Structures are given as structure tokens and as C-alpha cells.
Fold this sequence. Notes:
It is a single chain. By secondary structure, the chain is α+β, with helices and mostly antiparallel strands. The protein is globular, with a radius of gyration of 16 Å. Helix 2 packs antiparallel against helix 3 and helix 7 runs parallel beside helix 8. About 35% of the residues are buried. The chain is built from eight helices and five strands; from the N terminus they run βαααααβααβββα. The two termini are about 25 Å apart. The protein binds FE2/S2 (inorganic) cluster. FE2/S2 (inorganic) cluster (FES) binds near residues 142 and 145.
Amino acid sequence: MNSASAVKTNNQAKASSATDTHGDKRLKMLSASIKRYQYQQDALIEILHKAQELFGYLENDILVYVAQQLKLPPSRVYGVATFYHLFSLAPSGVHTCVVCTGTACYVKGSPGILTNLEKSLAIHPGETSADGQISLLTARCLGACGIAPAVVFDETVLGYQTPESVVEHIKGWLQNGSS
Ligand code: FES
């Protein structure tokens, strides 16, 4: 098995401060994107797109973070996120597996990783396994290109993944039961 480099994300801290991006590169990228839009409230949809691209779905903390950054009431951000079908507010599985399909990861083998996951879970990205255990998602660049190909298992980014290692990880989840 390849050595894996783990980078812990810190979801709890994500929304604690408008400027506090901690070590989560994805959040830093989202922050940079918001800056590029000059914190314009009119850019809410584009920013939510970017957030979903980075995180796979729009979790609560991220919506609050975007609301803080754009100085919008959270209710407005929630309203927009729930109105448009293309936004997904939560993965429905117990576990979430997000495969990066950005350029660096693509070149280093993410298509093979995705194919193997699709085959072993019998689902496509955006879907949840029939037993409700695992949601499979894709994202375009997680900000961890140096350890490509990268996959996020729940809140942990693992690098140097292979089609075999990801399936092993999923098996480990299933063997340990739902948490
Ligand atoms: S392309 Fe996958 S982390 Fe950047």
C-alpha cells in the first residue's frame, strides 16, 4: 500500500471567523475566490458553485462562512442554496468519499480511482450506496495537488491514492460498521 499523507480538515473551526482559514486548503481557496469577487453579494451563486466544487456539497458551516464573508443573512444564503437543484446541502450517506478530478489528480490517476469506486459501490458520483452507508462525490481541486491524487474520506484528505487503496478504505468503513 502506498504511503498516505493525511491532512486533517477542521470543519468546526471553518465558520468560527470570517478570516480564520486554519489549515484547510479548500477553505483558503474558497476565501481567495470570494476575494476575487470582491465580496460582492451579487456573486453569491458563483461563490456557492465554487464552494460545492471544492467540498463536494454545501455543508452548514460553509453556508455560514459564505454568509459571514458576504455580510448576508444566513437565511438568504440558505434560501439560494435550497432553491437551486444543482446545489447539494448534504451527502445522504453515513460516510462521504470525495474524489478530486482536478487536473493534477486527473493526470495522476483519479479516473481509475473513480471507476473502481463506482464499480465496487455500484453508484455514480452524486449518489449514495443502496445501504445508505457511502455517498460518492467529486470535486475539482481540493487544494492538495502536491499529494495528488487526493481523496477526502469524511473530513480527512488522503494523498497518493490508488484504485485499490480507496476501495480498501471503504471496506474498512463497512467492516467497522456505521458510525
Ligand atoms: S487537482 Fe486534485 S488537489 Fe488539486
